[in-house]
Design brief:
alpha/beta, Rossmann fold, 7-stranded parallel sheet, 3-stranded mixed sheet, 14 strands, binds uridine-5'-diphosphate-4-deoxy-4-fluoro-alpha-D-galactose
């Protein structure tokens, strides 16, 4: 079974590549390395012990994408490629809508032209917007607070509509919670370009001395210790969720939404203290103002994925902290060493 991974060189894409290959699938990567590094390819080869088939192609480039589809017979597509920085999306909405939507349209067109009808989409818990009750279930109302989130929301709707119009299509919309951690080899991981956007890359950069102090965005939320609560999931568990979704799509049609999280809420302070304990490194921090747009608490009800996909997260917060640090300490400059 051959699977196309758009954005397969990125953080979640690269870990999914490894899990797919280890589960016996043929995986083909399309990535323009806009937000990833070509060095990841050699590392994927080292981890899997197999040559890596990849194309340096922008998914929006329809001619180039057509050539990829002519070279392979895909059974399914996993669409990771896309712009993903919340703050940047507020400053550059048009670029986000154009890139994230057009790449999806180009991909769906190519799939239709080549009779490929199984689609796994990288969605996000961001589509739950300012939801005030937790845990979040797939049937809860959706709505977003920034253009990045709206692109995920809109693409979900596009795929739902395609699945209605084409009953042979099988679509899994995977709503990720907060992926952290890295492959246990320490050779692939999250490599943010410039200043990180998310908490764990900030923690690891403070641990390495690259940044002096962490800023904790608010300790006056209505949570047990006042800091924001999120559902952190090990990226390898998340990657395995994609393998489970591909397996599911082989024998189902229609469109289904799945939360991929652990179902556990962890506060910023809990994450900092777990990291300090597991790695024996102090993380100095200052509590500062709340970050605009942040909600107090966000964690998944992950029971649907367990029941329907036979998947659940198994790695612990300790595993996530240890593996994030192994990646950062072995690759202080990321892939660009
Ligand atoms: N935080 C800090 N200091 C930092 C960075 C983050 O205290 O330097 C806090 C935030 O306030 C929040 C928590 O750490 O309480 C997690 O923040 P992240 O930025 O790591 O993650 P978010 O939950 O804000 O956002 C993530 C993804 C988005 C996605 C969203 C949906 O980054 O792409 O989850 O759930 F849209």
């Amino acid at each position: 079974m051959a699977i196309l991974l758009t954005g397969g060189a990125g953080y979640i894409g690269s870990h999914t590549y490894v899990e797919l290959v280890q589960a016996g699938y043929d995986a083909v990567i399309v990535d323009n390395f806009y937000n990833s590094c070509p060095d990841v390819i050699e590392r994927l080869k080292a981890i899997t012990g197999k040559p890596v088939t990849y194309y340096d192609v922008d998914v929006c480039d329809r001619k180039a994408l057509e050539k990829v589809f002519l070279n392979h017979t895909f059974d399914a597509v996993i669409h990771f490629a896309g712009y993903k920085a919340v703050g940047e999306s507020v400053a550059k909405p048009l670029a986000y809508y154009r890139n994230n939507l057009d790449s999806t349209f180009a991909l769906c067109d190519a799939m239709q032209a080549h009779g490929v009808s199984r689609f796994v989409f990288s969605s996000s818990a961001t589509v739950y917007g300012l939801a005030e009750t937790v845990p979040l279930t797939e049937t809860m109302p959706t709505g977003c607070t920034n253009p990045y989130g709206w692109t995920k929301y809109m693409i979900e709707q596009v795929l739902r509509d395609i699945a209605v119009a084409h009953p042979d299509w099988a679509v899994a919309l995977l709503r990720y919670f907060n992926p952290i951690g890295a492959h246990e080899s320490g050779t692939i991981g999250e490599d943010p370009v410039g200043l990180p956007n998310n908490l764990m890359p900030f923690i690891t950069q403070v641990a390495s001395g690259k940044l002096a102090k962490l800023r904790v965005f608010g300790n006056d939320y209505d949570t047990p210790d006042g800091t924001g609560v999120r559902d952190y999931i090990h990226v390898v568990d998340l990657a395995r969720g994609h393998v489970a979704a591909c397996r599911y799509l082989l024998s189902h049609t229609g469109c289904e939404v799945f939360n991929l999280g652990t179902g556990l809420g962890v506060s910023v302070l809990e994450l900092i203290h777990t990291f300090e304990r597991v790695n024996n490194i102090p993380i100095p921090f200052d509590v500062v103002e709340r970050r605009p747009g942040d909600i107090a608490t966000c964690y998944a009800d992950a029971s649907k994925a367990k029941t329907v996909l036979d998947w659940e997260a198994s790695l612990t917060l300790e595993d996530m902290c240890r593996d994030s640090w192994r990646w950062q300490s072995q690759n202080p400059k990321g892939y660009r060493a």
